[in-house]
Amino acid sequence: MITKTLKYLLTLFCELQIALIAVYVLTVLFLQIVITPMIIFTLVGSISLNYLPQAQAIYLIGSCAVVGAILGLIWANSIRKKYGIVKFHAFLLSTPEIDGRHDRNGNAIAKPSGQEGVYT
How far is Cα 88 from Cα 79, in angstroms, rounded to an integer? Predict the structure, then answer.
């Protein structure tokens, strides 16, 4: 009886750890999508430092960052609903030309017969 309880508790603890790691990874990937437009808008707003007084430029940069964050949240939610966060990042990181599945025009490349794993 005690061994079953210990086994159950240990399994529950391990599953909880895995779930927490998965939530952490998905949160980081989601925040990467949110931060991208925020950084772009902040950089565009920082151009105002050359043309406005510093106090006004700081407010403009801050408002550009807020607008970028709001647009980033909207964009990240649309990506999450349409593709999924992990699938979207996998698409960004994939290299089909290097993997040998497609050429530059997107046409599938067939394997030569008798040569396993070799693409032309």
Answer: 7
